[in-house]
Amino acid sequence: MKPKKFSMSLIACCTAMLFITGTISAQNTEKAFKMQKQCILNCHSNPEMTEIIKTIEYYVEGGRKGDSKITKKAFTNNATMSWSESGQIRTVPIKVLYDIVDKSGASTASYKLLDCNIEQNIAIVKIQSQFGPQEYIDMFTLIKDIDNWKIVSKIYRVKI
């Protein structure tokens, strides 16, 4: 009986997560079903998903409130942020993001989880985020220390 209850709680957890992140909608039920199935499989073999989402939430919530102290909870001290600009790869310390968050101030912010791959204490997460009117595709590399998942690198592109 216990394994069945555990599986049902995972289904409920993943379904709730997909609703919260906006992945499930009446307009895209087939894609949502596939993502839910993938999420359930991932949650089943990787119970770390809740903590990874918590880390991503720090990133988004910091942007929502315009407060880099919240954003900073998601990243390691030596994290980097990278993107391509006019065909050139740019990589900067994560402090640059903190400065942008503080300078921009509070704004609307949301995200959708697009993909997550977890292998023991490492993970790669892909989200579609929106801060104010601008949309992005963000990819994060995370590592788990003793207690928490932390982002060690963020790469992104502006969604057109």
List the helices and strands and how they pair.
Layout: H1 2-20, H2 29-45, H3 49-65, H4 68-71, E1 75-85, E2 88-93, H5 95-104, E3 109-119, E4 122-131, E5 134-144, E6 149-158
Parallel strand pairs: 1-6
Antiparallel strand pairs: 1-2, 3-4, 4-5, 5-6
Provide key terms for this protein.
single chain, 160 residues, six-stranded mixed β-sheet, 5 helices, 6 strands
Question: How would you portray this structure in words?
Answer:
By secondary structure, the chain is α+β, with helices and mostly antiparallel strands. The chain is built from 5 helices and 6 strands, in the order ααααββαββββ. It has helices at 2-20, 29-45, 49-65, 68-71, 95-104; strands spanning 75-85, 88-93, 109-119, 122-131, 134-144, 149-158. Strands 2-1-6-5-4-3 form a 6-stranded mixed beta sheet. β4 (122-131) and β5 (134-144) form a beta hairpin. α1 (2-20) packs across α2. The radius of gyration is 16 Å and the shape is globular. It starts with a helix and ends with a strand. The model is unreliable at 1-13 and 23-27 (pLDDT under 50).
